[in-house]
TrEMBL record:
Catalytic activity: oxidized coenzyme F420-(gamma-L-Glu)(n) + a quinol + H(+) = reduced coenzyme F420-(gamma-L-Glu)(n) + a quinone
Similarity comment text for this entry: Belongs to the F420H(2)-dependent quinone reductase family.
Organism: Nonomuraea typhae
Protein name listed in UniProt: Nitroreductase family deazaflavin-dependent oxidoreductase
Coiled-coil blocks: none
UniProt lineage: Bacteria, Bacillati, Actinomycetota, Actinomycetes, Streptosporangiales
Alphabetical list of InterPro entries matching this protein: F420H2_quin_Rdtase (IPR004378), Split_barrel_FMN-bd (IPR012349)
Length: 133
């Protein structure tokens, strides 16, 4: 399923179930191997993209653990565009609440899924990485 969605995004058609999709590139936190995960994303006022570490498990998804384990090696692909290096930031407090309200309004299924989980879904802001040099 992931490989099919990745091909779709690379061909310029990045939607699934009414949501915009990007490909998140991470590195396995233990293996060091490259990983690609298609994820729904939401617009962010801070000139970036918001993704939600949702899922039915009692722990955060592997992609989130990989992302936070090697944040300096993350990038994303948007439909039909080359990869862009990004910096992840987990939102908290009032900033997370504002983002969650917008995400739940745009896609009520996220609020439904969150209601069935005992963990609070992390919301991660991805912003283009500023190269130092």
């Amino acid at each position: 399923m992931n490989a099919r969605m990745n091909r779709k995004v690379r061909r310029g058609r990045g939607t699934f179930m009414g949501m915009d999709v990007l490909i998140l590139h991470t590195v396995g936190r233990r293996s060091g191997q490259p990983r690609e995960t298609p994820l729904a994303w939401f617009a962010d006022d801070a000139d970036g993209w918001l993704i939600v570490a949702s899922g039915g498990e009692a722990r955060h998804p592997d992609w989130h653990l990989n992302l936070m384990g090697h944040p300096g090696r993350a990038s994303i692909e948007l439909p039909g565009r080359p990869a862009v290096a990004v910096t992840p930031q987990v939102l908290d407090g009032a900033e997370r609440e504002r983002a969650w309200k917008d995400i739940a309004a745009a896609q009520p299924r996220y609020a439904k899924y969150q209601g069935k989980s005992e963990r609070a879904y992390p919301i991660v802001r991805l912003t283009p990485r500023r190269e130092v040099g």
